[in-house]
Design goal:
The structure is a single chain. The chain is mainly β and 270 residues long. The chain folds into two domains: 9-121 and 258-268, Diaminopimelate Epimerase, Chain A, domain 1 (Roll), CATH 3.10.310; 149-251, Diaminopimelate Epimerase, Chain A, domain 1 (Roll). Helix content is 15%, strand content 39%. It has four helices and 17 strands. The chain has a 17-stranded mixed beta sheet that branches. Strand 1 and strand 2 form a beta hairpin. It binds ligand LBFN2T5F. Keywords: Amino-acid biosynthesis, Cytoplasm, Isomerase, Lysine biosynthesis.
């Protein structure tokens, strides 16, 4: 058995509106975690705990090439709140007020906006109105009233508009889609309520992470779905458990503006 110990993993802990991340810089041949280690680090009781773990790699066209892992070890093509956090790291390193991130979901541009960070999450790539369902589904048979909107933002989202977002049992309604053949790659699920001031209230069940305090790519999907339903203009404020995001859907994609927080650095022994 190889008893040689592997070099420890150094990481940064950050969050965007309470959606929390462990960020590991894998550049310069620095050690990166195995999927088993991702799950162990993500354990809220025995590890560090995170909603997503982010690994940074050298890039030939961006500040970083980025890989996003959920706490169950699955990967995702997008992670909006983490993208704001690592964009801040990139800008601090480069001294510029802008950054470029290459993710599985595409090339993302980010920039400072005062004390906040703006990220262009790209165009929405699909919705139920544009893409025929994989099979003939009676959408009204889905667990909640009404027909959801399916919007891709580098990752899949199923957006339900409900009368009272606080009344939704997220652990039940969100988990329903973890093994639904309608979503062969699973999906993130957002439950949204329109408010009288034109803003939206969003609660989120994340694929591979469960209920989170905020989901940035989900907020982008919600903004697109709400606009397509005539509920909002092309820009909207969304209230999440962890705080507010501002979304504006422009011709070059959906821009998301919000805050980030830097928590601490740490070392994961191996
Ligand atoms: N919290 C993220 C979304 C993270 C990935 C998602 N769970 C998925 O698997 O697609 C965000 O802020 O976008």
């Amino acid at each position: 058995m190889n008893t040689a110990s592997k070099p420890p993993l150094t990481f940064r802990k950050m969050h965007g509106l309470g959606n929390d991340f462990v960020i590991i810089d894998g550049r310069n041949n620095a050690p990166i975690p195995s999927v088993e280690e991702v799950r162990a680090i993500g354990d809220r009781h025995r590890g560090v705990g995170f909603d997503q773990l982010v690994v940074l790699h050298e890039s030939d066209e961006a500040d970083f090439d980025v890989v996003f892992y959920n706490s169950d070890g699955s990967t995702s093509g997008a992670c909006g709140n983490a993208s704001r956090c690592i964009a801040d790291l990139a800008m601090a390193e480069s001294g510029r007020d802008s950054a470029l991130l290459r993710t599985e979901g595409g090339l993302l541009r980010a920039e400072r906006a005062g004390q906040l960070i703006r990220v262009n999450m790209g165009p929405p790539v699909l919705s139920w109105r544009d893409v025929p369902l994989a099979r003939d589904v009676d959408l009204n048979a889905l667990p909640l009233d009404g027909t959801p909107s399916a919007v891709g933002m580098g990752n899949p989202h199923c957006v339900f508009f409900v009368e009272d977002a606080e009344a939704v049992d997220i652990a039940v309604e969100g988990a329903r889609f973890e093994h639904d053949p309608l979503f062969p790659e699973r999906t993130n699920v957002e439950f949204v309520q329109s408010l009288t001031d034109g803003s939206l209230r969003q609660r989120t069940w994340e694929r591979g992470a469960g209920e989170t305090l905020a989901c940035g790519s989900g907020a982008c999907a919600v903004a697109v779905a709400a606009h397509r339903r005539g509920l909002t203009g092309r820009d909207v404020t969304i209230h999440l458990d962890g705080g507010d995001l501002h979304l504006d859907w422009r011709n070059d994609g959906v821009w998301m503006t919000g805050g980030i927080s830097y928590a601490f650095t740490g070392v994961w022994p191996r």
